[in-house]
C-alpha cells in the first residue's frame, strides 16, 4: 500500500491549491482530502512492491525456461529434418 506520509503530502499539496479565502479551512479540508485519498486508494486492487518483485522474478524464470524449450524444439526439428528418410 502507499505509505501514509505520501498520502499526507498529497493532501497537503491539494490543500495548498485552495484559493486564499479558504486558507482558514485548510486543515479541515486537508484532513478531508486525506480521508478521501485513503478510502479511494484502499478500494484499488493493488499489490505490494514485494509481491510485484516476486511475480517479476517468477515471470523472468518462466520466460527463460520457455526460451530454452524453444531452442530445444528448434534443435529437434532440425535434427528430424536432416535425418535421411527411408
Walk me through this protein's architecture:
The protein has 86 residues and is an all-alpha fold. It has 2 domains: 1-46; 47-86. The chain is 76% helix and 0% strand. The protein is built from 3 helices and no strands. Helix 1 crosses helix 2. It is rod-shaped and about 95 Å long. It starts with a helix and ends with a helix. The mean pLDDT is 84.
Topology of this protein?
Blueprint: H1 4-16, H2 26-43, H3 49-82
Helix pairs in contact: 1-2
The gyration radius over C-alpha positions equals 28 Å
Which outline best applies?
A: rod-shaped
First-last Cα distance: 65 Å
Q: Count structural domains.
A: 2
Strand portion? under 5%
Number of E-state strands: 0
> Count of helical segments?
3
Which series of helices and strands comes N to C?
Answer: HHH
Class computed from helices, strands and strand pairing: mainly alpha
Main sheet characteristics: none
Amino acid at each position: 500500500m502507499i505509505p501514509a506520509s505520501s498520502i499526507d503530502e498529497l493532501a497537503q499539496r491539494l490543500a495548498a491549491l485552495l484559493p486564499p479565502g479558504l486558507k482558514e479551512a485548510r486543515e479541515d479540508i486537508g484532513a478531508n482530502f486525506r480521508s478521501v485519498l485513503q478510502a479511494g486508494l484502499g478500494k484499488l486492487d493493488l499489490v505490494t512492491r514485494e509481491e510485484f518483485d516476486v511475480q517479476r522474478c517468477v515471470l523472468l524464470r518462466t520466460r527463460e525456461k520457455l526460451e530454452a524449450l524453444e531452442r530445444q524444439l528448434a534443435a529437434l526439428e532440425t535434427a528430424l529434418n536432416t535425418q535421411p528418410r527411408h
